[in-house]
Amino acid sequence: MSKTVSTRGMLVVCKCLVRRRKKGFEVAYNATYYPCMDILCECLEDKASGSETCSVVLAGSRFYKNNGLSVFSMGKIGHTRMWKLSKRVCSTQPAGDLGPLCPFTIGVYVALMMAQIEFLRKKMHSYSEIVNGARLGSRNRVLRFDLIITQ
């Protein structure tokens, strides 16, 4: 899906759904657009205020011995439910075969991308910056996106 969006655009991904499967796309898109926008707003505000940088520095300091406290280990994103499932699914697919695209997954993916595009445009970012793939806080907020979408 990412490759198709990158090379042919989101509209092509949406158009690949047959009429009877568009309802699942619409349900997912409508349910996730505004919750994703909320988290994206938080991400950019944290970045603009310097809070994100401070948080990263503080988190990094927790990985060293400090006054006799144990060292905390950095969590591994690959241990989350989504990444474990992805690994299992990908291991059963022939190389290059993504299998059938799920309308719900496409809806969530496109909603998040469109929310980010709209937010960045409202914050006066240039189109070139937007299309070159700014990912606002994707690494440190992935669990928030997972939680809010699951809810």
TrEMBL record:
Molecular function GO labels:
oxidoreductase activity
Protein name in UniProt? Uncharacterized protein
Q: Which organism is it from?
A: Vitis vinifera
GO BP terms:
branched-chain amino acid biosynthetic process
Q: Which residues cross the membrane?
A: none
Q: Look up the signal peptide feature and give its range.
A: none
